[in-house]
Design brief:
- By secondary structure, the protein is α+β, with helices and mostly antiparallel strands.
- Helix content is about 20%, strand content about 50%.
- It has one domain.
- Strands 3, 9, 10, 11, 12, 17, 18, 24, 25, 26, 27, 30 and 31 form a 13-stranded antiparallel β-sheet that branches. The protein has an eight-stranded antiparallel β-sheet with strand order 8-7-14-13-23-22-33-32.
- A hairpin with a 6-residue loop joins strand 28 and strand 29.
Length: about 625
Amino acid sequence: MRTIAIVLAAALAAAAEESTVLHIYDVTTLTVKIVNFKGPAVGFTASGLGDGSDFGGIGIGVTGGEEEGTAIPGEDLKLLISQSVAPGTWDTPPNSIEYQDGSLIVRHTPEAQAGVKAFLAVIRSHMLRTVVVETEVLDLAPGVLDIPAGAVLTEEQVKAVDAAVLDPAKGRRVASLRACGLNTQRFHAAALNQESYLRDSDIEIAERQAIADPVIGTRSTGYVLDVRPTLSPDASLVFLTVRFDAGEPLATRTFEPGGKALGILEQPDENVSRTRANLVVPAGRMALLSSSSFNGAQPGWTQVVLLRPGVQADTPLPFPDSKERLQVRLFDTRFILCDAGDFPGPRLGALIETDDSGATGATFESPDAEQGVTVSSDQIENMIKRSIAPGSWNDASLALSGNRELFVFQSPENLKLVEEFVKRLTSERARLVSVDSWVLAMDEATWRDRRAALSGEIADATWTDLLAAAARGGAVRTVGTARAAGLNGTRFHTARGTVRAALFDYDVEIAQSASAYDPVMSVVAEGISLDVTPSSVGDGGQVHLDLRPTTVLAGELRTVSLQDKGVQVQAVELADFGVRTQVLVDAGRPTLVGVATRPKGAGTEVLVLFVKATVIDVR
């Protein structure tokens, strides 16, 4: 009998193996981490100045970089399939599933193999979606487009903008960029022009002679759109982390230090602008990223940056129908969990290289990003388990993959509740705050006349009259404006100005019978920077603003001769108007937040800073 049992068992095992098939599935696109591509820099290089974050690209080359993204761990994918397709059968020989180097090796019945294939197709359709982001850079006359940053343009506004850029009296199209990549991937598009210039001289000194060794730099001008999109679960909204840079070339000057400062230097000038922000935009719609102006040749004109994200027209596949008591469902929570980094703004002024290649003085340096507002995966799990069928999770399970998708094994009724919960969290994260800033200059007499009306709550008629006077120029003029939007509670900035290379200092090189002056490269950055962290209060009727705006006005570079045999340096006068404060303002109302004075000619000029915040709930 024992022999018969052994033979029967062997026959059954052989029959089972004959009824199964072996398939190898390539899951590389799901398990291998995507590559994130940082955008290149705009600006001109200067040895030792900055760490790659300076305004105007000081110290940065022209290439970007790569960094790893996220993916689903292979073991997680293996577990998902074993619990979703023919559950309870994978421990029965010869059935098996293994993950190895981007491949799933599966042995099971043809019916189960069909289920595995269908399940992988569903996962791919949810994870591997392509996002397209377009941007338009426009110069627009007053009145063409006056909406908060982050706001979506209506069809009429889009038509008005399109018509304006065809009329030189109303606007012009400066640049257009289009980039595409995977959902949650960082990618970029850049249109750059490069020009070499003689930026410095390294002094080589021997016992009796000094020689200037020319150092060539590169100036990059153009436009860079660096973006990371994250789709909402239904792909109707796109969370965008945007880094936008623009550089427009101006003249390149020559400067001869003279005397023992050997060589001739070239000094480029450049108009630069940048925006760093997190915002939410409806897919397929155009929104205003930022607008700014600084000492423009055309009063009232602003340069605006428009964004339009779109999603490739593929539709995620539904999960297969199942009669199991517990079913699997994928919820894309990347929109909720994606990092919203804070972006500190740059500071303007004079940047001088030191002996240790550091920077001194008022730099125009700003770190790329700091940790901002985030929701952890543990918080999501705890909220779901506490809010939805709390007593049911002993039998069911919930897990977040490495790419922040939420896989839930639950009853169909509870899966529906999880879906509604995720939708609520998504809508709560789609609140933006747009912040405007104006820096106006006026003479003392005009300030005395207007001061009382501009303090406290500013009447609509008073504000309209002030802006009209600034547009006309004369006693009131616009120094600069800046408008940008960001996710509620996050720090963002936009800045616009001019960067000029300069020579403020030398290192003295001395040998036994020779000496020379080694130029130390410097830069002057003037402009307007809006750096703000807004937080809406209650229903959005008021906004708390953590403000760090800066405005720097620079005079002309002038030449100063040193006493030592005609060696020359450059000097510049700066007016630095900065505010560091926290204020509570009424949404939609302009508020005066800072006043400063500076000498101008025989009199005094008053600089006045106004801000306005607008709350936007994106739908």
